[in-house]
Amino acid sequence: MPLYYIWTIGCQMNKAESERLASRFEELGYQSTGRAEEADLIVLNSCVVRQSAENRVVNKLAALKSLKKARPDITLALTGCMVDADTDSLKKTYPHVDHFFRAGGYPPWLEKAEALSLPHYPSPTEFVTIIQGCNNFCSYCIVPYRRGRERSRTMEEIACEMRELVKRGAKEVTLLGQNVDSYGHDLPDKPDLADLLGELNPIEGLLRIRFLTNHPKDMSPRLIEAIAKLDKVCEQLNLAVQAGSNQILKAMKRGYTIERYRRLIAEIRNRIPEIALSTDVIVGFPSETEEQFRQTADLLKELKFDAVHVAAYSPRPGTYAAEKLEDDVPPLEKKRRLGEVERLQERIATEINAQLEDKVVEVLVEGKARDRWQSRARSGKLVFFNDKTDRRGQLVNIRIEKTSPWSLRGKVES
């Protein structure tokens, strides 16, 4: 039986697409292996959003060069955001790679189908892509150039996929897109994400729905209302702010002001008081002064997010920022700012999570992690607990006994 190996780096969309590829390979008679050296078919699913991610992909490709030379019969393919429409330069740089195909696309040796295959035995939590591409063209982001313009799947197709995943054992589904808030604008009837959530909420056996990522300029009052009213939609949102300075937001081409962002957060919290909010921040963007960085730090202190995903700016070739803006914040200063945000958020998350001590939260159990059950509350917070009963895929009430900035620990509430 031929063996396949898939190496994945990057966002949840990459992970979801790798899962679908794996299922299709198994339908064709391949068996998974955890070692590239044993495989007959190797697929690298790449990410180039950060320089560190691209470096890992390049290193992986270099490492496989000697394997391909020793075993020229291996099929080696590259997909993900490293692959754009023009593959000639990639073929010249990596001649040992047999095939290149774009993110969300199909490898050339697979029979074209309406959708890639679903996993036969899905995990309790699964990902479903609802929209590909992005129309926003933030000045620092390569995604629109690699994944193309926005293309929504129909509500019927998404609902059919979700019903099948639930039938096979999934309990929670996260809807994915570079910007899920733009869902449906390109479809004939122009449904939006609120409409889609309303369509999916009644699916029997489905316990929870999440979605990401969101864009502040595109989040509508209808979507906020849907989160508040639909019982299976989790009270959790990631709403990337990226910077606390209007000047930097303009340079980033984000399309909103800090004042608008504050109002949006207030509207969400007013309608959904129990909402868990997270955000993304880039420090050291071109021309960011110390005063502008302080505006970002002050915003985080003010709004107190449950989680903050922070990264130091790195120029991505092919983007407006890389071509037009000078990367003038020194690396050590970027590192200092990043560390300050991380320490600040650790203190904020410590305070927020401490309020959950001795509270009972409902969790969905995802599986085992180091002999403990790993689960997730509706807020998205990780909860670990010990129990001899097989709890995988179950909703369980847990009384929280210990909190930290990153996770919670507790015991089953009898």
What labels describe this entry?
single chain, 414 residues, alpha/beta, five-stranded parallel beta sheet, five-stranded mixed beta barrel, 18 strands, 34% helix
Characterise the protein shown here.
By secondary structure, the protein is an alpha/beta fold. Helices cover 34% and strands 22% of the residues. It is built from 12 helices and 18 strands. Strands 2-1-3-4-5 form a 5-stranded parallel sheet, with helices on both faces. Strands 14-15-16-18-17 form a 5-stranded mixed beta barrel. Strands 6-9-10 form a 3-stranded parallel sheet. Helix 6 packs parallel to helix 7 (221-229) and helix 10 runs parallel beside helix 12. The longest helix has 24 residues, at 331-354. The model has no long low-confidence stretch (mean pLDDT 93).
Give the proportion of residues in helices: 25-40%
Which structural class fits the helix and strand makeup? alpha/beta
Unreliable spans are none
Distance separating the two termini:
48 Å
Question: What percent strand?
Answer: 15-25%
Biggest β-sheet: strands ordered side by side in the sheet: 2-1-3-4-5
Number of helices: 12
As a whole number of angstroms, the C-alpha radius of gyration is 22 Å
